[in-house]
Structure formats: structure tokens, C-alpha cells
């Protein structure tokens, strides 16, 4: 509330609107990151389970932490996929590879849509490259 008052004094009605837009943008970005991370984690967990990777629940939890940190699930999925291929389970490795690709690319599509829905920002501000920092 203090920020809005300060900006209202500083820039009048435009300052108040800028403060409201900033608050909406922060909420929308946080919502976009969390929901995208949940979707990526769900796909990763399903893929790990379908491919019968040992300790799939632990790997899914690690993938969730990585997705929240915006590193993506590939740091978990790629080694698991390689392990499946090298252990002679090429079919399960291929299934996990497909799940990994879908989970990793989901970030480029879902997050900008969620952010755009939550705040009226230009689309280049809600793209993954601009949010990665």
C-alpha cells in the first residue's frame, strides 16, 4: 500500500496504474512458474513410472525442485534415459525419451500463456528467455 501511495504522489494516476501492473506481473510470473513446474513434474513422474525407472518418486521430487528453479526436468530425465539405453531397455528408454522431450518443451509454451493470462504484459516479457534472467 505504501508503494502505491508513493507512486501516486510521484506520477499521479499513471504511477498507481504502474504499481498495480507490477503487482499483477509478479503474481502472474510466480503462478506461471509454479504451474509449469507442476505440469513438467507430473509428465516427468509419469514417464519415469511408465519406464519403470528405479526410485522414480525420488527422481520426480528432484525434477520438481529443478523445475521450480527453472532448470527443467532434463537434468533428471536425460541420465535416466541414457541409463535405460545402456542397460538394454531400449524400448523403455525411447518411451522415457518422448516423455522427457514433451516435459522439457512444455516450458516454452505453457508458462508464457499462463503469465499473459495473469497480467497484460507484452508477449516478449513473458517468454522463457526473458524470464531466465
The fraction of residues assigned to DSSP E strands is under 5%
How many beta-strand elements?
0
Q: Which regions have little confidence, pLDDT < 50, spanning 5+ residues?
A: none
| Major sheet size, sense and barrel closure | none
Q: Which outline best applies? A: rod-shaped
Mean pLDDT: 86
Helix-strand topology string: HHHHHH
What is the alpha-carbon Rg in Å?
A: 19 Å
What's the end-to-end separation, in Å? 28 Å
Quaternary state of the chains: single chain
Category by helix and strand content: mainly alpha
Number of separate domains: 1
Helical fraction: over 70%
How many DSSP helices?
6
Features:
133 residues, mainly alpha, 0% strand, rod-shaped
General description of the model:
With 133 residues, the protein is mainly alpha-helical. It has one domain. 81% of the residues lie in helices and 0% in strands. The chain contains 6 helices and no strands. The chain has helices spanning 2-11, 13-50, 56-68, 74-86, 90-118, 128-132. It is rod-shaped. The model has no long low-confidence stretch (mean pLDDT 86).
Could you outline the blueprint of secondary structure elements for this entry?
Blueprint: H1 2-11, H2 13-50, H3 56-68, H4 74-86, H5 90-118, H6 128-132
Helix pairs in contact: 1-2, 2-3, 2-5, 3-4, 4-5
Amino acid at each position: 500500500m505504501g508503494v502505491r501511495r508513493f507512486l501516486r504522489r510521484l506520477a499521479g494516476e499513471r504511477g498507481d496504474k504502474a504499481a498495480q501492473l507490477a503487482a499483477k506481473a509478479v503474481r502472474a510470473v510466480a503462478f506461471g512458474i509454479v504451474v509449469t513446474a507442476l505440469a513438467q513434474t507430473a509428465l516427468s513422474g509419469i514417464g519415469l513410472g511408465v519406464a519403470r525407472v528405479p526410485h522414480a518418486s525420488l527422481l520426480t521430487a528432484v525434477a520438481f525442485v529443478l523445475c521450480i528453479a527453472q532448470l527443467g526436468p532434463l537434468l533428471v530425465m536425460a541420465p535416466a534415459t541414457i541409463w535405460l539405453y545402456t542397460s538394454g531397455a531400449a524400448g523403455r528408454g525411447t518411451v522415457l525419451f518422448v516423455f522427457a522431450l514433451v516435459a522439457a518443451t512444455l516450458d516454452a509454451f505453457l508458462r508464457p500463456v499462463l503469465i499473459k493470462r495473469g497480467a497484460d504484459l507484452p508477449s516478449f516479457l513473458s517468454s522463457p528467455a526473458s524470464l531466465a534472467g
